[in-house]
Design goal:
Order of helices and strands: HHHHHHHEHHEHHH
Largest sheet: 2 strands, parallel
Radius of gyration: 20 Å
Oligomer: single chain
Distance between the termini: 49 Å
Shape: elongated
Number of helices: 12
Strand content: under 5%
Length: about 200
């Protein structure tokens, strides 16, 4: 019989790791593995906790990278991090630039433009609708900051993209169901108001 709630316990383990309480994180990941031995997230988290406890300075950067990947595609993130951990032989040197370069630089290599760049183009041209429609059909806008996400939703609503704004917001709420700011945005969107900055 399973004694732990997998998702709650993983969330607690991840929180402990984020607070640099690696020993507690390791214990919590181990609880998950006891009941769910095939949990890749728990396994990867346990390995990263052990590495952090043994003084591997890059373990935290790898954990942050893993967290960002999981937001986009959890299954793919599990595979990528598992492969990295398997090829590391106990050191993080083989990760090279992918971990040391800033997240934004890494994301810039993906198929899309950063929100800052998109915003700069809109500021220069002054026509959100036209620029958004051009970009929407050729690439995607990469948003890494919550403030930028709120600003983006506001612009969508101001330009009558209410359904699209709702779709983005519902997706964000699926990942962060208890986020008060996102829930507030949802209520405003439902009432047809624009988001305040």
């Amino acid at each position: 019989m399973k004694t732990v709630n997998k998702y709650k316990t993983l969330a607690l383990a991840n929180e402990s790791f984020s607070k640099s309480d690696f020993e507690q994180a390791l214990r919590t990941y181990a609880l998950v593995l006891k009941d769910y031995p095939n949990s890749k997230e728990a396994y990867n988290g346990a390995i990263l906790s052990e590495m952090a406890m043994s003084g591997e300075s890059g373990a935290e950067a790898l954990f942050d990278y893993y967290s960002v990947l999981r937001e986009d595609d959890a299954e793919q993130a599990d595979l990528i991090i598992s492969e990295i951990l398997e090829t590391m032989d106990g050191t993080l040197e083989q990760l090279g630039d992918i971990i040391t370069q800033p997240l934004k630089e890494h994301l810039a290599f993906e198929d899309g433009i950063m929100y800052e760049e998109f915003k700069a183009i809109v500021d220069d041209e002054g026509d959100f609708r036209r620029i958004f429609e051009n970009i929407m059909f050729s690439t995607r806008v990469i948003i890494t900051e919550k403030e930028d996400f709120v600003d983006f939703l506001d612009k969508l609503m101001q330009n009558n993209y209410h359904e699209m704004a709702m779709s983005y917001l519902e997706g964000a709420l699926a990942v962060h169901p208890n986020d008060k700011e996102l829930r507030k945005l949802l209520r405003r969107l439902a009432k047809g108001k624009t988001v305040e900055n």
